[in-house]
Amino acid sequence: MAPIISLLLSLLLLISPSSSRTLPTSTPSTPQPGPIQTLNRNYKFACDPARFKSLSLDINNFAYCNKSLSYYDRVDDLISRMSVGEKVHQISDYAYGVDRIGLPKYKWWSEILHGVSTVGQFDPGHATSFGGDVPGATQFPEVILSVASFNESLWKSIAQTVSTEARAMYNLGHTYLTFWSPVINVARDPRWGRIMETPGEDAFTIGKYSVNFVRGLQDVEGFEVTSDLNTRPIKIASCCKHFAAYDIENWYFSERFSFNARVTEQDMVESFNLPFEMCIKEGDSTSAMCSYNQVNGFPSCADPKLLTQTIRGEWNLHGYIVSDCYIYQYLHDNQKWLNLPKEELVAKVINAGLDLECGWDHHDQAILAVKQGKLREKEIDRALKNLYLVLMRVGFFDGMEKYDSFGTDHICTQEHMDLAADAARQGIVLLKNVNNTLPLNKDIHKKLALGGTHVNATDAMKGNYAGTQCRFVTPLNALQADANVTYVLGCDLYCNNKTVTGQMKNATSGADATVLFMGIDASIEGETIDRRELLLNPGQVSFIEEVANASKNPIVLVILSAGGLDVSFAKDNDKIGAILWAGYPGQEGGRAIADVIYGRYNPGGRLPITWYPNNYTESIPMTSMQFRPDQELGYPGRTYKFYDGPTVYPFGYGLSYTTFNYTLKANPTKIETKLEKYQKCLQISTKNSATSPQCPSAVITTMPCNETIDFEVEVANIGKVDGSDAVIVYAVPPEYVDGAPIKQVVAFDRVFVGAGKSQVVKFSVNVCQRLSVVEKTAYRVLPAGAHKIVIGDSSVSFDVDVELVY
Fold first, then answer.
1. Quick one: 235 exposed, middle or buried, by C-beta within 10 A (0-12, 13-18, 19+)?
2. Residue 23 clears pLDDT 90, i.e. is over it
3. Which residues pair with 576 in a beta bridge?
4. 20 to 30 A Cα–Cα from 714, which one of 2, 31, 590, 733?
5. Quick check: 173 pLDDT over 80?
6. Where, residue-wise, is CATH 2.60.40.10 in the chain?
7. Does 24 have pLDDT greater than 50?
8. Of 171, 274, 179, nearest to 218 (Cα)?
9. Terminal-to-terminal C-alpha distance of the chain
């Protein structure tokens, strides 16, 4: 089956359309928004009395500016003052404001994925700009590299830092207070172009990242929890995106604007939904963004099941739901959904639960829908209430004393840039290190030969959804401080210049060590761009092999990429002594790489995605959405949870300059899990001839779920180098359960251990939440029987017998 699929894919490639993104071509019927409004240059907040005076208005006549009233009453007063037409002009990313009632304009759309971003800056609805008193902001590593640290406190610190810079930029008139980040879609397929923006392939890890990142962006100290979360003060507003089952850009004849993701309810609950559920329920995100694609024939942004029933109902969102950009145009022109006239389509989407469109081309249609009786005005009021409650909470109307003084001295500080460097260091993964090729020694490796595609990388280190950086420290810049460097430029992504190859071979012959910086960039993988294969360009492979063969010393290969690459040729080549994966390491990337190469930092990152061999892409189309293998079609499984074939490097892989040993210090062997008095035991899918317990499983949503597995792991550093270790804990379900994951992450922690010393790491795993599996029926159930807890990729494990009792 695989060769047939490979042939079909090759034929499709010959006639595949280009993958460039095209924006809607129709002209919006309302005037296009103007330049970014610099409200904060003149007034601290919207309800500033001086601002009303400048409009010849008396602020005392407007109850929505009366701080003695509740947010609910103030928002109700604001909405009641608008006409239908004025209301409609506030539910797009560029909110026009209403001068006659003192309501200023607002721009909802900014990005803060790994630093305040310029993405969308040329769109009239975008809010962020750089220049003048804000020439740049700190650009952290792309998300996929930061996640490789498996360090929750780092993720939260990054978010706290970028939100501080965002708040300062708001005060200086360079952005607003709502940011559409983070991206928390599962990296289901290795070809997906946006893997760099995601926290990897494990839904639980993604969820933990989202909770920490959102809390870091939003939480105001002392107000992390309040009695009414709809009025909880927030530092800036976040957005979990893109919901749901979105992970395809442009793959042959399938593109994101019209793709219908055929997804089982089992996979929805288990993988696609889990990160969003955690982001909204535990992170308390103030927004969620629906995606372009359809899910089982229904557009995500028009599905009341996804928007109203799930996001706002089951998960209790305290905020607003926004669409991906120009959604009405794509539903009408690309999907031709139900062949509806545009005003009826707009009505259906708003009625489904959408509060805000990223775009501004629906105003006339929304007004027409109200006139025709297809859209109730109260649904627009609902949307406005959700939106303006968030703006009340974030201080747009009243300011927020804690942050009102933030300014230029809160942006691009040395502390922030040092954190960006540390984030890159913590994420870098050592994939290969034959005979301790690394770290290099400054007393021995005094002459370095540097070359390759990314030796002097700048923008390539930022990845996508980046802003203007404070500065760049390239690999070449950083390593010149460590050694006498000979460098060769001119090897681009294709690296076909034989003159450059010859120059590099000459350079390596006189060097004590050679470091090659290779890989891909955002022109190969990114938004609108899915990959067709997992290989480096043949020119790069030839360059690496020729230089390696000419070198008298082992080569160090540094790879910049987000998605995995099949680098088996380098993994198996003894002349290539070490391989480092550096993701897209941000503005301080060169500094971090140099620190790892010369041993000032001991790498401890772990791969958050599986690196598959290239032939994986020949065995399964990207459009196959299911995670479990399909034996009839010959499709392998997806992610470490369901794929058991060969890998280049597995999920969770990462070496160190030292050696860590694990020892269990304390662990339970049996857990009795309480059922409710009238709760029924549920039959569970079992493997052929397998015997299940008398009470095989129970649905966890009807259980108290108070039991935890508490255990301790002693991490001993038995080497001679201090280092950090990412301890990843997996659970293996009972053997009799059919269709269960091979294993699944249930906990992780990163711990620093000095050479010759040890640290005890304590874990507490909720039995219901973490040992449960999702049945074919889409129930999340806890199976009874022997579960195995495995520490990392070691042989250290223990069994826990789970018994369901009344």
1. buried
2. no
3. 555
4. 733
5. yes
6. 660-805
7. no
8. 179
9. 49
Give the whole-angstrom CA distance, residue 78 versus residue 37: 21
Report d(CA 118, CA 131) in Å as an integer: 11
Residue 794 scores a pLDDT above 90 = no
Look up residue 624 and give its two tokens. Answer: 């196959």
Average pLDDT over the chain reads 93
Q: Tokens 């061999």, residue?
A: 613
Q: Which amino acid is at 583?
A: G
Provide the pLDDT for residue 42: 66
The pLDDT-based confidence of 461 (bands split at 50, 70, 90) is: very high
Q: How far apart are CA 122 and CA 129, in angstroms?
A: 9
Flag whether pLDDT at 11 surpasses 60.
no
SS3 73: helix
Measured distance CA(235)–CA(129) in Å, rounded:
20
455 CB-near residues (< 8 Å, 6+ apart): 474, 475, 476, 487, 488, 489, 491, 516, 517
d(CA 176, CA 125): 11
Q: For residue 697, what is the enclosing H or E element? A: strand 697-699
Q: Which residue do the tokens 């978010």 mark?
A: 159
Residue 122 CA from chain centroid, whole number? 24
Which pairs with CB-CB distance under 8 Å and at least 24 residues apart come from 55-60? 55/99, 55/102, 57/101, 57/102, 59/102
Q: Is-cis flag, bond preceding 182, omega within 30?
A: yes
Could you give the 3-state DSSP secondary structure of residue 298? strand
pTM: 0.94
User: So which residues are the catalytic ones?
Assistant: 324
Residues in the chain, overall count: 806
Q: How many other C-beta atoms lie within 10 A of the C-beta of residue 646?
A: 11
Confidence at residue 795, expressed as pLDDT on a 0 to 100 scale = 86
| Cα(624)–Cα(318) distance, integer angstroms | 34
Tens-digit pLDDT profile for residues 377-415: 999 999 999 999 999 999 999 999 999 999 999 999 999
* Residue where the block lists tokens 């003192």: 102
Locus of tokens 């070496």: 655
**Type of residue at 549:** N
Q: Rounded to an integer, what distance in angstroms lies between the CA atom of residue 217 and that of residue 31?
A: 33
Q: Give the mean model confidence (pLDDT) for residues 567-586.
A: 98
pLDDT of 243-289, one tens digit each?
999 999 999 999 999 999 999 999 999 999 999 999 999 999 999 99
Domain spanning 424-642: CATH superfamily: Glycoside hydrolase family 3 C-terminal domain (3.40.50.1700)
Query: What's phi and psi for 649, nearest 5 deg?
Result: -145, 135
Residue 245 and residue 185: Cα distance in Å, rounded?
7
CA distances for 637 relative to 15, 388, 435, 643, 765, angstroms: 28, 44, 35, 4, 27
Residues near 292 by beta carbon (within 8 Å), at least 6 away in sequence:
242, 246, 256, 257, 258, 259, 300, 301, 324, 327, 330
Strand partners, 450: 487, 515
pLDDT given at position 8: 42
CA distance 732 to 745: 9
CATH 3.20.20.300 domain range(s) in the chain? 37-409
DSSP state of 786: E
Q: How far apart are CA 323 and CA 154, in angstroms?
A: 30
Whole-angstrom CA distances from 118 to 136, 185, 407, 469 are 10, 22, 19, 10
Q: Where in the chain is the domain with CATH 3.40.50.1700?
A: 424-642
Please report, as a single letter, which amino acid is at residue 227: S
Contact yes or no for 555/576 (Cβ under 8 A): yes
Options 1.10.150.120, 2.40.160.60, 2.60.40.10, 3.10.620.30; CATH of 660-805: 2.60.40.10
Which one-letter DSSP state was computed for residue 271? I
E strands in 382-470: 429-433, 447-451
Fold of the domain built from segment(s) 37-409? TIM Barrel (3.20.20)
- Alpha-carbon distance of 731 to 768, in angstroms, equals 12
The pair phi, psi for residue 196, each rounded to 5°, is -60, -30
